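Researcher: I'd like a structural prediction for the single chain below. Treat it as a standalone chain; there are no partners to consider.
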Amino acid sequence: GYGGTEAPAHAADYNVYSLAGDMLALLQHLGVSKAALVGHDHGANFGWTLALLHPSIFVCYVAMSVPYTGRAKVPLLAKLREVFGDEQRPETEPRYFYMLHHNLPCAAADYARGTREMFWALYGDRSDAAPALVRSKCLFVDGRSEPMWRRMRQPRRLQAWISEGEVDYYIREYERHGWEGGLQWYRVFDVDWAATSQLQGKRLEQPVLFIAGARDEVLSRFGGAGAVQAALAPGGG
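Model: Treating it as a single chain, here is the predicted structure.
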């Protein structure tokens, strides 16, 4: 779904077993029977499941940014809708959360109208950035869904560690291939949860390395660095 890869039109094609089949087929094509697996962000979330499903093939795992805290008791999207409201029912005035916005049919178009702005918001220097274009906590503002990039501060320059040429590459790729494929990953969370009940209570037995930045916002959603360390420790989670 990202970059130059195939991007099936139906969200169902992004379920965990389809993606696992792609990974296993790739290894088979290369003649590889065992592999060290590395995943970041969405790839990290998927990688935890992949390593649990096929421990004899993925003999060690490195995850970046997204930790594993065990199979949730309830599916993620259902839980988010309890907290923020149903994004499919704008008349109920749901609050904004990016994962729910990504489940809207118009989400790709919302990002496409500001691809450059999105990447500058992500990789820009926020120390003296202009205010966000949207301040409302509602998902829909004046009858239109408002995406992440319009809710973030608008940087005037990039961070020192990334060049404009590097960011322009990402912008060109997303302008060329669109956003829809990447957003499909968010639409199968509950499907994957229902299809992997056999993983309830299971933990990885192979060696695992977890890497995250000290200021990674993802860690805060899991209770902070201390809570993540406790969950990942032997006997934790």
